[in-house]
Design a protein that fits this description.
Blueprint lengths: L3 H11 L6 E6 L1 H4 L6 H12 L4 E5 L6 H7 L5 E2 L7 E5 L2 H5 L14 H7 L3 E5 L8 H9 L5 E8 L5 E9 L10 H6 L3 E6 L2 E7 H14 L12 H16 L4 E5 H4 L3 H11 L3 E4 L1 E2 L2 E2 L5 H13 L3 E6 L7 H11 L3 E5 L4 H9 L3 E5 L5 H11 L7 E3 L1 H6 L4 H8 L6 E6 L18 H10 L5 E4 L9 H13 L2
Parallel strand pairs: 1-2, 1-5, 10-11, 10-19, 11-14, 14-15, 15-16, 16-17, 17-18, 18-19
Antiparallel strand pairs: 2-4, 3-4, 5-9, 6-7, 8-9, 12-13
Helix pairs in contact: 1-3, 3-4, 6-9, 7-9, 13-14
Protein backbone atom coordinates (compact mmCIF):
# COMPACT_ATOMS: atom_id res chain seq x y z
CA UNK A 1 0.00 0.00 0.00
CA UNK A 2 1.53 3.29 -1.18
CA UNK A 3 1.50 6.13 1.32
CA UNK A 4 2.53 9.78 1.27
CA UNK A 5 6.02 9.04 2.58
CA UNK A 6 6.63 6.71 -0.37
CA UNK A 7 5.37 9.31 -2.86
CA UNK A 8 7.74 11.90 -1.41
CA UNK A 9 10.69 9.51 -1.45
CA UNK A 10 10.20 8.54 -5.11
CA UNK A 11 9.84 12.16 -6.26
CA UNK A 12 13.00 13.18 -4.44
CA UNK A 13 14.80 10.16 -5.88
CA UNK A 14 13.86 11.48 -9.34
CA UNK A 15 15.39 14.84 -8.47
CA UNK A 16 12.35 17.01 -7.69
CA UNK A 17 13.00 19.67 -5.08
CA UNK A 18 11.49 22.67 -3.36
CA UNK A 19 10.44 25.44 -5.76
CA UNK A 20 10.12 23.23 -8.84
CA UNK A 21 7.20 23.39 -11.27
CA UNK A 22 5.66 20.10 -12.47
CA UNK A 23 2.98 19.23 -15.02
CA UNK A 24 1.45 15.92 -13.89
CA UNK A 25 -0.21 13.31 -16.08
CA UNK A 26 -1.40 10.43 -13.94
CA UNK A 27 -3.32 7.20 -13.52
CA UNK A 28 -4.21 6.38 -9.93
CA UNK A 29 -5.17 2.81 -10.78
CA UNK A 30 -1.70 2.16 -12.24
CA UNK A 31 -0.15 2.74 -8.82
CA UNK A 32 -2.23 0.07 -7.14
CA UNK A 33 -3.37 0.57 -3.55
CA UNK A 34 -2.89 4.13 -2.23
CA UNK A 35 -3.60 4.87 1.40
CA UNK A 36 -5.88 7.91 1.42
CA UNK A 37 -6.56 7.75 -2.33
CA UNK A 38 -5.71 10.49 -4.88
CA UNK A 39 -5.32 13.14 -2.20
CA UNK A 40 -2.24 11.32 -0.92
CA UNK A 41 -0.54 11.61 -4.30
CA UNK A 42 -1.29 15.35 -4.50
CA UNK A 43 -0.10 15.90 -0.93
CA UNK A 44 3.13 14.08 -1.70
CA UNK A 45 3.86 16.34 -4.68
CA UNK A 46 3.01 19.50 -2.73
CA UNK A 47 5.29 18.49 0.14
CA UNK A 48 8.24 18.04 -2.21
CA UNK A 49 7.54 21.25 -4.17
CA UNK A 50 6.90 23.34 -1.08
CA UNK A 51 5.16 26.69 -0.95
CA UNK A 52 7.43 28.13 -3.65
CA UNK A 53 6.69 25.33 -6.10
CA UNK A 54 3.72 24.73 -8.39
CA UNK A 55 1.80 21.62 -9.46
CA UNK A 56 -0.19 21.59 -12.74
CA UNK A 57 -2.38 19.02 -14.44
CA UNK A 58 -4.44 19.03 -17.66
CA UNK A 59 -8.18 19.12 -16.94
CA UNK A 60 -9.73 18.64 -20.38
CA UNK A 61 -11.40 15.31 -21.19
CA UNK A 62 -11.48 12.30 -18.89
CA UNK A 63 -8.02 12.62 -17.38
CA UNK A 64 -8.63 10.90 -14.09
CA UNK A 65 -9.36 11.52 -10.45
CA UNK A 66 -6.11 13.28 -9.51
CA UNK A 67 -6.66 16.33 -11.79
CA UNK A 68 -10.29 16.50 -10.71
CA UNK A 69 -9.34 16.51 -7.03
CA UNK A 70 -6.62 19.10 -7.68
CA UNK A 71 -9.27 21.38 -9.20
CA UNK A 72 -11.16 21.30 -5.92
CA UNK A 73 -8.21 22.30 -3.75
CA UNK A 74 -8.38 25.80 -2.19
CA UNK A 75 -6.28 28.24 -4.20
CA UNK A 76 -6.37 26.16 -7.39
CA UNK A 77 -6.29 28.25 -10.60
CA UNK A 78 -8.02 27.08 -13.79
CA UNK A 79 -6.44 28.43 -16.96
CA UNK A 80 -8.96 30.62 -18.85
CA UNK A 81 -9.04 28.60 -22.06
CA UNK A 82 -11.78 26.12 -23.01
CA UNK A 83 -9.31 23.92 -24.91
CA UNK A 84 -6.04 22.55 -23.52
CA UNK A 85 -7.17 23.69 -20.06
CA UNK A 86 -4.93 23.14 -17.04
CA UNK A 87 -5.32 23.49 -13.29
CA UNK A 88 -2.42 24.89 -11.29
CA UNK A 89 -1.81 25.07 -7.55
CA UNK A 90 1.14 26.90 -6.01
CA UNK A 91 3.27 30.00 -6.15
CA UNK A 92 3.35 30.40 -9.95
CA UNK A 93 -0.22 29.25 -10.65
CA UNK A 94 -1.54 32.66 -11.73
CA UNK A 95 1.53 33.43 -13.82
CA UNK A 96 1.41 30.10 -15.63
CA UNK A 97 -2.31 30.26 -16.40
CA UNK A 98 -2.68 33.97 -17.22
CA UNK A 99 -4.38 34.73 -20.58
CA UNK A 100 -4.15 31.13 -21.73
CA UNK A 101 -6.91 31.83 -24.25
CA UNK A 102 -4.98 34.60 -26.08
CA UNK A 103 -2.27 32.76 -28.16
CA UNK A 104 -3.11 31.27 -31.55
CA UNK A 105 -2.35 27.78 -30.21
CA UNK A 106 -3.53 26.52 -26.80
CA UNK A 107 -0.37 24.43 -26.34
CA UNK A 108 2.69 26.39 -27.49
CA UNK A 109 4.13 29.87 -26.88
CA UNK A 110 2.58 31.92 -24.04
CA UNK A 111 0.58 28.95 -22.74
CA UNK A 112 1.04 27.06 -19.47
CA UNK A 113 2.84 24.29 -21.36
CA UNK A 114 5.67 26.33 -22.83
CA UNK A 115 5.79 28.65 -19.82
CA UNK A 116 6.55 25.49 -17.87
CA UNK A 117 9.61 24.94 -20.07
CA UNK A 118 10.63 28.59 -19.81
CA UNK A 119 10.63 28.25 -16.01
CA UNK A 120 12.84 25.16 -16.11
CA UNK A 121 9.96 22.93 -15.06
CA UNK A 122 9.23 19.24 -15.47
CA UNK A 123 6.64 16.86 -16.90
CA UNK A 124 5.78 13.87 -14.72
CA UNK A 125 4.13 10.82 -16.29
CA UNK A 126 2.82 8.81 -13.35
CA UNK A 127 1.57 5.42 -14.49
CA UNK A 128 0.95 6.70 -18.04
CA UNK A 129 3.08 6.78 -21.20
CA UNK A 130 4.10 9.47 -23.70
CA UNK A 131 0.72 9.25 -25.44
CA UNK A 132 -0.66 11.24 -22.49
CA UNK A 133 2.07 13.88 -22.74
CA UNK A 134 0.09 16.98 -23.77
CA UNK A 135 3.28 19.05 -23.85
CA UNK A 136 4.18 17.37 -27.16
CA UNK A 137 1.14 18.99 -28.78
CA UNK A 138 2.88 22.29 -28.09
CA UNK A 139 5.92 21.10 -30.05
CA UNK A 140 3.67 20.12 -32.98
CA UNK A 141 2.06 23.55 -32.85
CA UNK A 142 5.41 25.34 -32.67
CA UNK A 143 6.50 23.42 -35.77
CA UNK A 144 3.18 24.37 -37.46
CA UNK A 145 2.92 20.84 -38.80
CA UNK A 146 0.60 20.78 -41.82
CA UNK A 147 -1.72 18.05 -40.55
CA UNK A 148 -2.81 20.13 -37.57
CA UNK A 149 -6.29 21.61 -37.64
CA UNK A 150 -8.39 24.25 -35.93
CA UNK A 151 -10.88 24.25 -33.09
CA UNK A 152 -13.43 26.92 -32.17
CA UNK A 153 -15.28 27.52 -28.92
CA UNK A 154 -17.42 30.07 -27.11
CA UNK A 155 -16.26 31.05 -23.63
CA UNK A 156 -16.22 33.85 -21.10
CA UNK A 157 -12.95 35.67 -20.51
CA UNK A 158 -11.82 36.40 -16.92
CA UNK A 159 -13.17 39.95 -17.21
CA UNK A 160 -16.64 38.59 -17.99
CA UNK A 161 -16.72 39.16 -21.76
CA UNK A 162 -18.40 36.52 -23.94
CA UNK A 163 -15.99 35.53 -26.65
CA UNK A 164 -15.71 33.16 -29.62
CA UNK A 165 -12.28 32.15 -30.85
CA UNK A 166 -10.65 29.74 -33.26
CA UNK A 167 -7.31 28.25 -32.21
CA UNK A 168 -4.88 27.11 -34.89
CA UNK A 169 -2.41 24.20 -34.98
CA UNK A 170 -4.76 22.07 -32.93
CA UNK A 171 -3.99 18.36 -32.53
CA UNK A 172 -6.11 15.80 -34.28
CA UNK A 173 -6.33 12.01 -34.01
CA UNK A 174 -3.72 9.30 -33.44
CA UNK A 175 -0.10 10.09 -32.60
CA UNK A 176 2.86 7.80 -32.01
CA UNK A 177 4.20 9.75 -29.02
CA UNK A 178 5.15 6.38 -27.51
CA UNK A 179 7.77 6.07 -30.23
CA UNK A 180 9.63 9.08 -28.79
CA UNK A 181 10.29 7.44 -25.43
CA UNK A 182 13.67 5.98 -26.39
CA UNK A 183 14.87 9.24 -28.00
CA UNK A 184 13.84 11.26 -24.96
CA UNK A 185 15.67 8.93 -22.60
CA UNK A 186 18.75 8.74 -24.83
CA UNK A 187 18.93 12.54 -24.84
CA UNK A 188 19.39 12.41 -21.06
CA UNK A 189 16.31 14.49 -20.28
CA UNK A 190 14.18 11.80 -18.64
CA UNK A 191 14.60 9.84 -15.41
CA UNK A 192 12.61 6.81 -14.28
CA UNK A 193 11.47 5.37 -10.97
CA UNK A 194 8.66 3.19 -9.66
CA UNK A 195 5.82 4.04 -7.30
CA UNK A 196 3.81 1.00 -6.31
CA UNK A 197 3.06 -0.68 -9.63
CA UNK A 198 3.38 2.52 -11.62
CA UNK A 199 6.27 3.51 -13.87
CA UNK A 200 7.15 7.15 -13.16
CA UNK A 201 8.90 9.31 -15.76
CA UNK A 202 10.22 12.78 -14.93
CA UNK A 203 11.12 14.82 -18.02
CA UNK A 204 12.93 18.15 -18.28
CA UNK A 205 10.38 20.27 -20.19
CA UNK A 206 12.92 22.63 -21.79
CA UNK A 207 15.06 19.69 -22.86
CA UNK A 208 12.05 17.91 -24.31
CA UNK A 209 11.04 21.01 -26.24
CA UNK A 210 14.53 21.39 -27.71
CA UNK A 211 14.92 17.70 -28.61
CA UNK A 212 11.42 17.31 -30.06
CA UNK A 213 11.77 20.51 -32.11
CA UNK A 214 15.02 19.12 -33.51
CA UNK A 215 13.40 15.79 -34.40
CA UNK A 216 10.34 17.48 -35.93
CA UNK A 217 12.41 19.88 -38.02
CA UNK A 218 14.30 16.91 -39.47
CA UNK A 219 11.15 14.85 -40.06
CA UNK A 220 7.67 16.44 -39.90
CA UNK A 221 6.19 12.94 -39.47
CA UNK A 222 8.28 12.26 -36.35
CA UNK A 223 5.24 11.56 -34.16
CA UNK A 224 3.24 9.62 -36.77
CA UNK A 225 3.23 5.84 -37.02
CA UNK A 226 4.07 4.03 -40.25
CA UNK A 227 1.26 1.50 -40.03
CA UNK A 228 -0.45 1.48 -43.48
CA UNK A 229 -3.69 0.39 -41.78
CA UNK A 230 -3.74 3.47 -39.52
CA UNK A 231 -6.04 5.80 -41.46
CA UNK A 232 -5.25 8.73 -39.16
CA UNK A 233 -1.50 8.65 -39.73
CA UNK A 234 -1.89 7.89 -43.45
CA UNK A 235 -4.03 11.01 -43.77
CA UNK A 236 -1.64 13.11 -41.71
CA UNK A 237 1.39 11.94 -43.71
CA UNK A 238 -0.50 12.89 -46.86
CA UNK A 239 -1.02 16.39 -45.47
CA UNK A 240 2.73 16.68 -44.87
CA UNK A 241 3.47 15.57 -48.44
CA UNK A 242 0.90 17.94 -49.93
CA UNK A 243 2.28 20.85 -47.93
CA UNK A 244 5.82 20.12 -49.11
CA UNK A 245 4.70 19.99 -52.74
CA UNK A 246 2.69 23.21 -52.39
CA UNK A 247 5.92 25.06 -51.66
CA UNK A 248 7.28 24.08 -55.07
CA UNK A 249 6.72 26.14 -58.21
CA UNK A 250 5.55 23.13 -60.28
CA UNK A 251 2.10 21.53 -60.04
CA UNK A 252 2.29 17.85 -59.10
CA UNK A 253 -0.10 15.33 -60.65
CA UNK A 254 -0.22 11.57 -61.16
CA UNK A 255 -1.30 9.54 -64.14
CA UNK A 256 -4.58 7.65 -63.76
CA UNK A 257 -2.87 4.43 -64.83
CA UNK A 258 -0.49 4.76 -61.89
CA UNK A 259 -3.18 5.88 -59.43
CA UNK A 260 -5.43 2.86 -59.88
CA UNK A 261 -7.61 0.78 -62.17
CA UNK A 262 -10.96 2.24 -61.14
CA UNK A 263 -11.93 5.67 -59.82
CA UNK A 264 -12.48 4.69 -56.14
CA UNK A 265 -9.02 3.12 -56.06
CA UNK A 266 -7.55 6.22 -57.73
CA UNK A 267 -9.15 8.50 -55.16
CA UNK A 268 -8.00 6.39 -52.23
CA UNK A 269 -4.41 6.18 -53.50
CA UNK A 270 -4.19 9.87 -54.43
CA UNK A 271 -5.52 10.98 -51.06
CA UNK A 272 -3.18 8.63 -49.20
CA UNK A 273 -0.25 10.06 -51.18
CA UNK A 274 -1.25 13.69 -50.62
CA UNK A 275 -1.74 14.37 -54.34
CA UNK A 276 -4.81 16.24 -55.56
CA UNK A 277 -4.31 16.28 -59.36
CA UNK A 278 -4.67 13.53 -61.94
CA UNK A 279 -4.01 13.15 -65.65
CA UNK A 280 -6.56 10.83 -67.24
CA UNK A 281 -4.86 8.35 -69.53
CA UNK A 282 -6.25 4.92 -68.68
CA UNK A 283 -9.38 3.72 -66.94
CA UNK A 284 -10.10 0.04 -66.24
CA UNK A 285 -7.11 -0.92 -68.37
CA UNK A 286 -8.31 0.95 -71.49
CA UNK A 287 -7.18 4.28 -72.82
CA UNK A 288 -9.66 7.07 -72.22
CA UNK A 289 -10.73 7.35 -75.86
CA UNK A 290 -12.10 3.79 -75.74
CA UNK A 291 -14.74 4.67 -73.13
CA UNK A 292 -18.19 6.02 -73.99
CA UNK A 293 -18.87 9.67 -73.06
CA UNK A 294 -21.17 8.82 -70.15
CA UNK A 295 -18.48 6.68 -68.51
CA UNK A 296 -15.91 9.44 -68.86
CA UNK A 297 -18.38 11.92 -67.38
CA UNK A 298 -18.98 9.66 -64.37
CA UNK A 299 -15.25 9.28 -63.79
CA UNK A 300 -14.61 13.01 -63.95
CA UNK A 301 -17.57 13.76 -61.68
CA UNK A 302 -16.41 11.22 -59.08
CA UNK A 303 -12.87 12.55 -59.09
CA UNK A 304 -13.98 16.15 -58.72
CA UNK A 305 -16.41 15.27 -55.94
CA UNK A 306 -13.41 13.83 -54.09
CA UNK A 307 -11.48 17.08 -54.56
CA UNK A 308 -9.23 15.76 -57.35
CA UNK A 309 -8.39 18.22 -60.13
CA UNK A 310 -8.27 16.91 -63.71
CA UNK A 311 -5.14 18.34 -65.34
CA UNK A 312 -5.92 16.90 -68.76
CA UNK A 313 -6.60 13.82 -70.86
CA UNK A 314 -3.77 11.89 -72.47
CA UNK A 315 -4.08 9.75 -75.60
CA UNK A 316 -1.55 7.28 -77.07
CA UNK A 317 -2.81 8.22 -80.55
CA UNK A 318 -5.40 10.53 -82.10
CA UNK A 319 -8.62 8.47 -82.34
CA UNK A 320 -11.11 8.38 -85.18
CA UNK A 321 -13.76 9.42 -82.65
CA UNK A 322 -11.96 12.68 -81.91
CA UNK A 323 -14.97 14.99 -82.50
CA UNK A 324 -17.10 13.06 -79.99
CA UNK A 325 -14.28 13.10 -77.44
CA UNK A 326 -13.70 16.83 -77.90
CA UNK A 327 -17.38 17.50 -77.39
CA UNK A 328 -17.28 15.51 -74.13
CA UNK A 329 -14.15 17.29 -72.90
CA UNK A 330 -15.70 20.68 -73.62
CA UNK A 331 -18.84 19.79 -71.66
CA UNK A 332 -16.70 18.54 -68.77
CA UNK A 333 -14.49 21.68 -68.82
CA UNK A 334 -11.37 19.55 -69.32
CA UNK A 335 -9.27 21.88 -71.43
CA UNK A 336 -5.97 20.03 -72.02
CA UNK A 337 -5.40 17.12 -74.38
CA UNK A 338 -1.97 15.47 -74.50
CA UNK A 339 -1.28 13.76 -77.81
CA UNK A 340 1.83 12.39 -79.60
CA UNK A 341 4.02 14.70 -81.66
CA UNK A 342 3.25 12.43 -84.61
CA UNK A 343 -0.22 14.04 -84.92
CA UNK A 344 -1.05 15.81 -88.14
CA UNK A 345 -2.23 19.38 -88.53
CA UNK A 346 -5.89 18.52 -89.21
CA UNK A 347 -6.78 17.01 -85.79
CA UNK A 348 -4.71 19.69 -84.07
CA UNK A 349 -6.82 22.36 -85.76
CA UNK A 350 -9.99 20.57 -84.62
CA UNK A 351 -8.70 20.38 -81.04
CA UNK A 352 -8.02 24.12 -80.94
CA UNK A 353 -11.36 24.90 -82.55
CA UNK A 354 -13.07 23.02 -79.72
CA UNK A 355 -11.46 25.30 -77.17
CA UNK A 356 -9.14 22.56 -75.91
CA UNK A 357 -5.40 23.15 -75.53
CA UNK A 358 -3.30 20.57 -77.40
CA UNK A 359 -0.10 19.47 -75.64
CA UNK A 360 2.41 17.48 -77.67
CA UNK A 361 4.50 14.65 -76.26
CA UNK A 362 7.57 13.01 -77.77
CA UNK A 363 7.34 9.31 -78.52
CA UNK A 364 10.15 7.78 -80.56
CA UNK A 365 11.92 10.96 -81.71
CA UNK A 366 15.25 12.41 -80.73
CA UNK A 367 15.50 15.97 -79.48
CA UNK A 368 16.09 17.66 -82.85
CA UNK A 369 13.30 15.71 -84.55
CA UNK A 370 10.90 16.46 -81.70
CA UNK A 371 11.69 20.17 -81.86
CA UNK A 372 11.15 20.18 -85.63
CA UNK A 373 7.79 18.38 -85.28
CA UNK A 374 6.75 20.80 -82.54
CA UNK A 375 7.47 23.78 -84.79
CA UNK A 376 5.02 22.45 -87.38
CA UNK A 377 2.23 21.98 -84.84
CA UNK A 378 2.42 25.03 -82.57
CA UNK A 379 2.28 28.76 -83.29
CA UNK A 380 5.87 29.90 -83.71
CA UNK A 381 6.95 26.45 -82.48
CA UNK A 382 7.59 27.60 -78.91
CA UNK A 383 4.91 26.14 -76.68
CA UNK A 384 2.88 23.20 -75.37
CA UNK A 385 5.51 20.50 -75.16
CA UNK A 386 5.28 17.52 -72.81
CA UNK A 387 8.79 16.18 -72.19
CA UNK A 388 8.86 12.39 -71.78
CA UNK A 389 12.37 11.40 -70.57
CA UNK A 390 11.78 7.63 -70.88
CA UNK A 391 10.79 8.03 -74.53
CA UNK A 392 13.94 10.01 -75.32
CA UNK A 393 16.05 7.34 -73.59
CA UNK A 394 14.31 4.62 -75.61
CA UNK A 395 15.10 6.64 -78.76
CA UNK A 396 18.80 6.33 -77.90
CA UNK A 397 19.45 9.83 -76.55
CA UNK A 398 20.55 11.17 -73.20
CA UNK A 399 17.37 13.06 -72.27
CA UNK A 400 19.02 15.93 -70.39
CA UNK A 401 22.52 16.19 -71.85
CA UNK A 402 21.27 15.75 -75.41
CA UNK A 403 17.48 15.91 -76.00
CA UNK A 404 16.60 18.76 -73.65
CA UNK A 405 19.47 20.95 -74.80
CA UNK A 406 19.43 20.45 -78.55
CA UNK A 407 15.64 20.82 -78.66
CA UNK A 408 15.81 24.00 -76.55
CA UNK A 409 12.74 22.78 -74.69
CA UNK A 410 13.29 25.27 -71.89
CA UNK A 411 11.08 27.59 -73.96
CA UNK A 412 8.36 25.15 -74.91
CA UNK A 413 8.02 22.65 -72.07
CA UNK A 414 4.73 22.89 -70.15
CA UNK A 415 4.87 19.39 -68.66
CA UNK A 416 7.56 17.00 -67.49
CA UNK A 417 6.67 13.32 -67.20
CA UNK A 418 8.24 11.93 -64.03
CA UNK A 419 9.39 8.53 -65.26
CA UNK A 420 12.60 6.62 -65.88
CA UNK A 421 13.76 3.83 -68.18
CA UNK A 422 16.85 2.07 -69.46
CA UNK A 423 18.14 2.34 -73.01
CA UNK A 424 16.20 -0.79 -73.97
CA UNK A 425 12.92 0.80 -72.90
CA UNK A 426 12.57 -1.13 -69.63
CA UNK A 427 10.85 1.08 -67.07
CA UNK A 428 12.68 1.63 -63.79
CA UNK A 429 12.07 3.45 -60.55
CA UNK A 430 13.21 7.05 -60.45
CA UNK A 431 16.96 7.62 -60.83
CA UNK A 432 17.54 3.91 -61.54
CA UNK A 433 17.58 4.16 -65.34
CA UNK A 434 19.02 6.26 -68.16
CA UNK A 435 16.36 8.99 -68.40
CA UNK A 436 18.36 11.54 -66.34
CA UNK A 437 15.17 12.35 -64.47
CA UNK A 438 17.02 13.78 -61.47
CA UNK A 439 18.85 16.27 -63.66
CA UNK A 440 15.64 17.27 -65.46
CA UNK A 441 13.80 17.83 -62.19
CA UNK A 442 16.69 19.86 -60.84
CA UNK A 443 17.03 22.18 -63.84
CA UNK A 444 13.26 22.71 -63.88
CA UNK A 445 13.30 23.75 -60.24
CA UNK A 446 16.20 26.10 -60.94
CA UNK A 447 13.99 28.09 -63.29
CA UNK A 448 10.88 27.83 -61.08
CA UNK A 449 9.02 25.79 -63.67
CA UNK A 450 5.29 26.40 -63.13
CA UNK A 451 3.87 23.67 -65.36
CA UNK A 452 2.94 20.09 -64.49
CA UNK A 453 5.12 17.31 -63.15
CA UNK A 454 3.16 14.10 -63.76
CA UNK A 455 4.19 11.04 -61.79
CA UNK A 456 4.09 8.02 -64.07
CA UNK A 457 3.15 10.14 -67.06
CA UNK A 458 3.73 8.51 -70.43
CA UNK A 459 5.11 5.24 -69.07
CA UNK A 460 4.21 2.12 -67.11
CA UNK A 461 5.83 2.69 -63.73
CA UNK A 462 7.31 -0.42 -62.02
CA UNK A 463 5.81 0.32 -58.65
CA UNK A 464 2.87 1.86 -56.85
CA UNK A 465 1.83 5.50 -56.60
CA UNK A 466 3.01 5.50 -52.98
CA UNK A 467 6.44 4.26 -54.08
CA UNK A 468 6.94 6.80 -56.85
CA UNK A 469 5.69 9.62 -54.60
CA UNK A 470 8.26 8.59 -51.99
CA UNK A 471 11.01 8.27 -54.62
CA UNK A 472 10.14 11.71 -55.98
CA UNK A 473 10.21 13.30 -52.52
CA UNK A 474 13.58 11.66 -51.86
CA UNK A 475 15.02 13.14 -55.06
CA UNK A 476 13.81 16.59 -54.06
CA UNK A 477 15.44 16.24 -50.64
CA UNK A 478 18.73 15.26 -52.27
CA UNK A 479 18.86 18.36 -54.48
Amino acid sequence: MVDKKMVVAVLRELGLKTGDTVLLHSSLVSIGGVAGGPGTVIDGFLEVLGESGTLLAPTFGALGVIPELLRQRPGAVISPCPVGTVVALGAAAEELCRNHWVPESPHAEDTPYFRLADRGGYICLLGVDQDRNTFLHGVEAALKLPYLGEVSAEFTTPDGVQHTKTWRHYPGPHRNFIGLDHAIESAGIMRRARLGNAEVRLIDAAGLRSEALRLGAADPAFVLCDNPACADCVRQRAAIYAAAMSRESFQLAASARLAGRYVPEMVENLQAAGISRIELDYLAGKNIAMHPPQQLRRAVDELREAGIEITGVRLPAVPAELPELLDTLKKLAVNRLIIPLTATAEPVTAIRAAGVEPVFCNTAQGGLAAAAALRTLTPEGNGNFCFNPAAFAAAGEMPFLRSYKVGRFIRSMVQLDINDARWDGTSTRLAAGNAEIKELISISRCRNFSGYFVLGGGAVYPGSLAEVAADFARLLREM
